[in-house]
Amino acid sequence: MDNSMNRSEEGSYHVASFSANTQAEIRRLDAQVDLFWPTESELIFRYGLKDGMDYLDCGTGPGRLMERLKDHFPSLKCTGLEMDPILVEAANLMVKNRGFSDCTVIQGTAEETGLPEHSFDFITMRLVLEHVPDPVVALESLRKLLRPGGRILIISNDFENHTRTWPPVHELSDLYKAYRTNRQQDQGDPCIGRRVPKLLTSAGYAVIAQEVEVAHNAITGDEAFFKAEGVGIPAQLVKDGFFEQSVFESMIQSWKEMLAHPDHCITRQLCVAIGEAQTPEAKAATEAEQQSSAQAASVAVDDSEFVAPGSELEKQIAALWCEAMKLDRVGIRSNFFDLGGNSLMLEQLHARLQGELGYQEPITTLFQYPTIEMLAEYLEGSSAKTSSSGPASAGPGERKKSGPVVDIRAKASRRRGAFGMKNKSDDTE
Fold this sequence. Notes:
Helices cover about 50% and strands about 15% of the residues. The chain is built from 18 helices and eight strands.
């Protein structure tokens, strides 16, 4: 098996191949922690890290986050977990130089930590999950290390919200496209930040919060961004054939011109998700409570002045509504949107009205007539239903010009008024 396959199985980050200069990359990793420390530290403290806890930093890199936290919490018992041997050596050197006797750094991965279960009160995973081949497997493994009620705080990239500037440096979009292609080739996901809450749920955590932390040069100054970003990664992308040399050079020039503007701005965002380890009993209780609440809501929302479907068309529409919204029954005067209907459900109902019932109506009709009674009455009086009865039938989407349709619309308008809905004609009266 070649080296690229081995790397894909372990993850998409290796310091020796990630940047053109290993020592510069280590300095960049330290600077990334420093760039976000003012906002990130507040989040870590707010979501539960306290002095004296047993703490794990998964993917600790050269150990800068542990170092920062130890300066704030002297009695914090820290363990650093890192896959890359070069970074393990750098982190252990930091621990030795700082004299942190209650800190240790070991080599391992999130999937295979080699650590005993239920050993930690708090875990951080900073800019690591995007490089992991199977995030759910990694998160499940880390969950086993947490004590009941212990928390994990995950900081992730979403490259749609990566470093942006004003005036714009347009070549950054080409750089990020090249970076995403490179990471995805190694089974990474540089846009994973938006997915983390769902991944936590799949891995058995209770999701506590999802936040966004922001760094801005008006607060940090330009130098903090220069140190955290650097040029090692773009240079490596050029070397590996993912990024054009000419675009790289153009980007450097555009960056220089941006910095020359007296009001220039540099900003970067990271996604922060917090999960809590659940016991099997707590997880089962939560699921039962959610199911009970959903069932109670589905009954309560439709019990007020319930009027059952009468005509065949009302029954057909009601069946579609019940299936789309997971309801046992629905009254013909209940408002679709008050019952929890949304645009996706509406599109599905529209497709089934056309495909199964043969009504060739625009989707806006479902917005105009949001109760079964109103919609059925409109459809029964319209000529929009497809027909094979001969030339006298109107084509799909056409309307008869006779009085009954006008009468039906007038009735529907009055009903909208009764439901407290504004009629379009109200704007012109």
